[in-house]
Write a structure and sequence with these properties.
398 residues; alpha/beta; Rossmann fold; 2 domains; six-stranded parallel sheet; 16 helices
């Protein structure tokens, strides 16, 4: 099968770009021909009126339509797999693909199909005010903390909805969790076209940590950007309630929100760390802490922890309970509640065998549900059927 990937990279490297590369490698490994056409938001910096060009391209891009038409004619893919379309690729290319009779699948990395900033989150916290075609709320609430940017995001979402770019031209939405799927269906996307296809992680070259090592683990680890959205204040306040327990933070810092110089004495900030250091940190901790204040799609750090037989402590909301099963491979706490988080941490600290047991179960779940073979089989069950229908009838919609 020949698969065309379409993706607009962000201004800096993102998890979506990593997923694109991983998908590409896995599909080629299984004998498929993969063609990728990508743009990058970095291109904006080299344009005379980059922001204006990005705005209009997001609405309608003749150059992208022409380029995609040429690629379709040259490569004749069986399926087109899209990731991010904004701003330069533009969803305006989707009708061109439909006219060519080629089915389209889309990995739903975030909530941008129904929320202009893709997060269901703004300076006030979780926000779903734009749901149901009310994109103007992005401007009224200034979700991007810049009126021009909020207006641009709202307009491009509203136009894509009114023009029916996604709803009329995407045959399968590959949601990362049941929660994400539910949000799409609530906003008018056909349930029959919404499939749950979680992220995966390669496990072939990662042997389980020895039981002796797991019994020696100490402290609680946070990996991610230290900012409000990630709930770093919740973790810091929980650390203050547990002064006798060590904590380690790894990641870049939003200095407008938190001062690393004023962290509690039992908290050590590791800074930005590489992959090797991250693996070592995961192998040394008793549990991974995750306190996001928003609906994140599918945090890869969960799988990275499970890969190292490390239990996860996460908020009881969004799709997190689908991955972190309370009392099985981790524990859930009341979102945004440092007291509840501190209580959970103390339970792990007073009962180390619980962490070992949850970590072992987490690795079992990873090997059974979140490996590349499981993902590939699910993906092909969706894509191959669409390809057959698309070739036969010129429309792959289900």
């Amino acid at each position: 099968m020949k698969i065309l990937q379409l993706h607009n990279h962000y201004g800096s490297h993102s998890g979506e770009s990593t997923v694109l590369d991983v998908h590409h490698a896995l599909l080629e490994k299984n004998g498929h021909e993969v063609v990728a056409y990508t743009r990058s938001s970095v291109e904006m910096n080299d344009m005379k009126s980059g922001k204006a060009t990005a705005f209009f391209s997001a609405l309608y891009s003749p150059s992208s339509i022409s380029k995609v038409r040429m690629i379709l004619q040259q490569h004749k893919p069986d399926v087109v797999h899209i990731h991010n379309m904004y701003p330069f690729l533009s969803p305006s290319v989707l009708p061109e693909i439909r006219r060519a009779g080629i089915p389209v699948v889309m990995t739903v990395h975030n909530y941008r199909l129904v929320c202009p900033n893709g997060l269901f989150y703004n300076k006030q916290g979780i926000c779903e005010h734009c749901s149901g075609g009310r994109e103007w709320n992005c401007v009224f609430m200034n979700c991007e903390e810049s009126i021009p940017k909020s207006l641009g995001y709202a307009l491009r979402n509203a136009w894509a909805r009114v023009a029916g770019y996604y709803i009329r031209n995407v045959d399968a939405y590959l949601c990362l969790t049941e929660f994400q799927k539910r949000k799409l269906v609530e906003n008018g996307f056909p349930a029959s076209r919404c499939h749950v296809l979680p992220n995966f992680i390669e496990t072939e070259d990662t042997p389980a940590c020895g039981s002796d090592t797991r019994h020696q683990r100490k402290g609680f680890l946070f990996i991610g950007r230290l900012n409000r959205q990630k709930g770093i204040d919740v973790i810091v306040n929980a650390a203050r309630l547990c002064p006798d327990i060590p904590f380690r933070f790894a990641g870049s810092v939003d200095t407008s929100f938190i001062d690393t110089g004023s962290l509690p004495p039992n908290v050590k900030w590791l800074g930005v760390i590489g992959e090797k250091e991250k693996t070592e940190a995961l192998q040394q901790a008793r549990a991974l802490l995750f306190a996001s204040q928003s609906y994140e799609g599918f945090p890869m750090v969960f799988l990275e922890a499970m890969q190292q037989s490390l239990p996860v402590i996460a908020p009881d909301m969004a799709g997190y309970p689908e991955i972190v099963r309370d009392g099985i491979n981790g524990s859930l706490f009341s979102p945004g509640n440092p007291e509840a988080l501190a209580e959970t941490i103390r339970a792990f600290e007073s009962e180390p065998l619980r962490a070992v047991r949850y970590g072992e179960k987490g690795r079992e779940i990873l090997l059974a549900e979140y490996n590349s073979e499981v993902w590939y089989q699910l993906y092909m069950s969706i894509v191959s059927g669409l390809a057959r229908r698309g070739i036969a009838s010129g429309t792959g919609a289900v």
